[in-house]
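New to this. Comment on this protein:
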Amino acid sequence: MTDSGKVYHRSCTGPALQTVEQHAQDQDITLFASCFCPFVQRVWAALEYLEIPYKYYEVDPYQKTQELLNVSPKGLVPALMLNTFDPPRALNESTVILDFLEDIAAKSTHRSLFPPSTDPYAKALVRLQSDHISRMLVPAFYKYLQAQDPEAQISGGKEFHSAIQSLVELFERAEREVGGTGLWVEGGDLGWADVVVAPWIFRATNALKQYRGFEMPRGTKFEAWLGRLFEHPAFKKTCSDEELYLDSYERYAFNRPNTSQVANAINSGRGLP
């Protein structure tokens, strides 16, 4: 396979485009987003699930306009503009935004991605799941996708596969100890860890499959979880057609120079920005 020079998309397609069109009006919250970005998608799915009104605003993070830098000093997405303040205030970093949205929902829509507050241990288990996703699974995804040497690709595939298996073990621990969390439970609902990991698991089924031949782990429970996750309305309506991801991630698959700040961090062995 050779680099065909495909470029990243600058607008959503499929179900995601329909969702964008439904959120074109001004709201108290404006989501600065890029259609291909998984960090954006975790926030976007949370906004949908928590039923918080928002305006979707597409930006190009590779063209760091002053408008984007005003809400995100590094020029990264996602970012929120909070229009209830005068002048408007801003937030960036996806996990910080997720915490903020949880607090907003607690006072408005009364929805939550966490287990009930009456079970702090269950919430702590979810935090452990989320910590693993951020520290291990997400970096492993990029390391695998960007690897060019065949041996590095094999090693990267094993590392990413192991990171998924470790997440499954954390889900199974929660199932044993508190009856399960999120969509891992049959009949359950979208949870914090589901939202945090879903964009990368989804891209593993298209970009990683296309460019690295990756196959998901097997298992009845895991496959059932995948089905519930990908079909959940709050996530599904933030997904574009497959072509968008295949085109947009070719630059990572061939590790083009300066693909992104994330790619540069992986190449240099630094933590993700």
